[in-house]
DNA sequence: CCGGGGAAGTCTACATCGTAGATATTAGGC
DNA sequence: GCCTAATATCTACGATGTAGACTTCCCCGG
């Protein structure tokens, strides 16, 4: 018989033989769990159950729950491709921004991690995968002609704006897609009209938010402004 | 004897008579706990202990822990003053930005809440205190001559940038203030030099981050860009 | 072929958490 | 003074992260 022993130990523990785990398999299962059921569903026991393993065994692949969370953020950020040798730095930053935006929309439950984990880990102790974008963007900017310290300024303004936009866009989510009145779609009817007249009046505008366009406009302003304020070439040769 | 009965029930429970609690007192104690010991220290039992009350009694003032967290963010945001009738909208937005930045620096442990709670609560269900800045800034912009929908665009770009900046600044924190070599102050010596040459080289620039200046430069670019792209008066009459 | 040793896996147990529900205590109206 | 309703307290339950002991497996030198 194929798929040999598996004596109905269904709870994750007391199962005899399985394929070998690896850090990546564990992290991918963790990401899946977060995507499907939210951050708070990612517990050691639930993850063990999803992998048909004893929860304690997971500590081989992540020292503790915090490390597991770090691993998930790293896994997600690894999906972000950066071409540091692109001579068109503005175009490249634009593309990265849209990629990261889509990544965030694909994994909305991970965004709190992306934003929150770095607040409790000093730069030097972060998972390397989360620092690589920083290093590569610095390279991109320096190669494009920026001073090292100007590159850092540009990076800060750019990444700050990008994360801010993503947070903004994700928090304006629709509460009731079946409803067709804008006020109700956003749940705004609960706000006292005297105190929130403009917010309520803006319901239609809020309800059709074109995130990509809004991001792009902001980037245009920011990037051209940065290029002007600092000493940078507009677009280099091909 | 003053301070009458208090028969050494030190654990927070079994204490006889105290001044009456109120939502504000509870929230202020919660904020204190978060400021002093971090978010994870804010548990019902610890808070009850801090107030010398039975933990269960707190459910009179917050329906559950999530509501307590919402209350804390509301309390912090209430410290932010907005003068919606200022005709100099750019100046006002600048001031608000710096105020919020300082507020975040004063309560760094609350920032994850500021940024994270709205992701799990639709607009209409948020604590009113967290929506008031939005309403007021919309008012400021509309009074300054912006279309309602342009005002929303400006608000989004502005607030996104602002939150992004705050996140950025807070995550570049110093790990070892006693050390005087920049690399070590930030813990960057652990990074593999081959893979992170520019990041390591930028250690000195990273170590002296002038957050206020950086925020201000970004705002200058963003606000003037927004004023130009949309149809807005540069600065209105006094 | 054996058997010993280290790694991988399992299990039990503990402190802590949020909170439902029962119980005790208080305060105010008649 | 007593009944009632609000308020306060207690107990208990099902989770959680993770330390530490125990068991099982695999491989490698003899």
Description:
The structure is a homodimer. Chain A is an all-alpha fold and about 240 residues long. In chain A, about 55% of the residues lie in helices and about 0% in strands. Chain A has helices spanning about 25-35, 45-50, 65-75, 90-105, 110-115, 130-145, 150-170, 180-185, 195-200, 205, 210-230. The longest helix of chain A has 24 residues, at about 150-170. Chain A is flat, with a radius of gyration of 23 Å. Chain A starts with about 20 loop residues before the first helix and ends in a 9-residue tail after the last helix. Chains A and B meet through helix 5, helix 6, helix 7, helix 9 and helix 11 of A and helix 5, helix 6, helix 7, helix 9 and helix 11 of B.
- Number of separate helices of chain A: 11
What is the CA-CA span between the terminal residues of chain A?
Answer: 61 Å
Specify the overall morphology of chain A: flat
Proportion of residues in β-strands of chain A: under 5%
Total strand count of chain A, please? 0
- The protein's oligomeric status is homodimer
Q: Any low-confidence stretches of chain A, pLDDT <50, length ≥5? A: 1-17
Order of helices and strands of chain A: HHHHHHHHHHH
Features:
homodimer; 238 residues; mainly alpha; 56% helix; DNA-binding
Task: Explain the layout of strands and helices.
The structure is a homodimer of 238-residue chains.
Chain A: H1 23-37, H2 44-51, H3 65-77, H4 89-106, H5 111-116, H6 128-143, H7 148-171, H8 182-185, H9 197-201, H10 203-207, H11 211-229
Chain A binds a DNA duplex (30 and 30 nucleotides) through residues 13-14, 43-45, 53-57, 59-60, 64-65.
């Amino acid at each position: 018989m194929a798929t040999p022993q598996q004596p109905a130990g269904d709870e994750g523990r007391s199962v005899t033989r399985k394929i070998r785990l690896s850090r990546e398999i564990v992290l991918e299962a963790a990401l899946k769990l977060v995507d499907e059921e939210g951050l708070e569903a990612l517990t050691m026991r639930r993850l063990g159950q999803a992998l048909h393993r004893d929860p304690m065994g997971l500590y081989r692949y992540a020292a503790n729950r915090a490390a597991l969370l770090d691993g998930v953020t790293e896994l997600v950020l690894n999906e972000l491709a950066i071409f540091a040798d692109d001579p068109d730095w503005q175009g490249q930053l634009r593309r990265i921004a849209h990629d990261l935006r889509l990544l965030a929309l694909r994994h909305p439950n991970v965004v709190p991690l992306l934003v929150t984990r770095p607040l409790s880990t000093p730069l030097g102790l972060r998972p390397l995968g989360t620092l690589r974008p920083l290093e590569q963007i610095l390279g991109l900017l320096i190669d494009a002609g920026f001073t090292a310290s100007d590159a850092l300024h540009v990076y800060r303004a750019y990444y700050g704006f990008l994360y801010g936009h993503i947070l903004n866009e994700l928090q304006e989510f629709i509460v009731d897609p079946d409803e067709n009145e804008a006020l109700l779609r956003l749940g705004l009817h609960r706000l006292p009209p005297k105190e929130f007249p403009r917010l309520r009046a803006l319901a239609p505008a809020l309800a059709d938010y074109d995130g990509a366009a809004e991001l792009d406009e902001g980037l245009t302003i920011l990037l051209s402004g940065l290029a002007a304020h600092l000493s940078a070439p507009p677009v280099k040769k091909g």
